[in-house]
Design brief:
The complex is a heterodimer. By secondary structure, chain A is mainly α. Chain A has one domain. Chain A is built from eleven helices and no strands. By secondary structure, chain B is an alpha/beta fold. Chain B has two domains: 128 residues, 3-Layer(aba) Sandwich (Rossmann fold), CATH 3.40.50.300; 62 residues, no CATH class. The interface between A and B is medium-sized, with 21 and 26 residues.
Amino acid sequence: MRAFTAVLSRELRLALRHPADTLAAVLFFVLVCALFPFGVGPAPELLGRLAPGAMLAAALLAALLPLDRLFGAEAEDGSLDQLLLSGLPPAALAAAKALGHWLTTGLPLLLATPVAAAMLNLPVEAWAAATVALALATAILSLFGTAGAALTLGARRGGVLLPLLVLPLSIPAIIFGAAAIEAAATGLEPRPYLLLLAALLALAAPLAPLAAGAALRAE
Amino acid sequence: MLEGRDLACWRGERPVFAGLSFTLAPGGATLLTGANGAGKSTLLRLVAGLLPAAEGALLWAGEDVAADRTAHARRLRDLGHGDALKPSLTVAENLGFYARLWGGEVAPALASVGLADLADLPARVLSSGQKRRLALARLALTPAALWLLDEPTVGLDAASVERLGALLAAHRAASGAVMAATHLPLPLPDARELRL
């Protein structure tokens, strides 16, 4: 446990020293959401209809940005060997990395959710559901993304391979996340969809670190 | 204590080495020598448990290392080619992370490699020799049964090599074993040479 918190606090400290990485993901999210009104025109109903899916897709793409450096930077300077020899099981190391990725990428995206929601004309009643849906969906992406980053580590063009591997896995998260936001926007109950998202997260939380750990060990 | 039996390692289709056997006793030292590409670094990674052996077995106190690689990792310190430093963290923070993992005090470990005065500088401003010394400071944190050193003296000045000699002597006096790969003379008296 001490080793787990040591790895996690190192992740957070490194993110604080490089705030540009987090900022880039947040700005990417906001900018993609801002581009939609330009593309489809400012018709309020149409934008509101597109908003749930657009926000989910933009958030997941933004959270993907820092993933290819998750293990790549560690492998280049020799830190990955030290982390694998830290006495922490590889799966626990991957779990710490995934949690660190969510705290430094997923969580800041949530702070930008109101901005994105306003630009896409999402009804205010749905903002709370949107925040919860994005929190769960980005957490799922952090987990699958960590497994993908571990698998593509050392592969040529790993940065291209990673989204191809991870984005199909996140389709269920988009479906249920967007359904939750849409339900809240039309005055329905978003809870069932959010619970399904949470169930996906509960499934990914043990499985993805195990897969990532096995991939790291085989590296 | 550490025993390799008929170890072989393959890189793709090509054998790096095969039929390699050795033993390393507590307090002992093995010096790996051989041309570039002979497999010195590969053997060190294999002994660390970072690479699986294609053939043969690696035993620690008679037990197969592959059975519990996490336990094996806890008893060794590995100094690879990379210094495993984060440029944006300070010297003390870089070492402090490993002190949290393994225990030990940062300040005396930094002093043992002559970096005490630079503790609060970011690692990015260090020279390559100073970075190597900071990596070596990891060895001084807490005792471990086995040190694996890959070219530990690259970039070090004479005074730093002497300090490393003192660290190595103290480690071996406390029944620690050393396996080192090098092209440069190392301060390791009566080390057994293993030619690859």
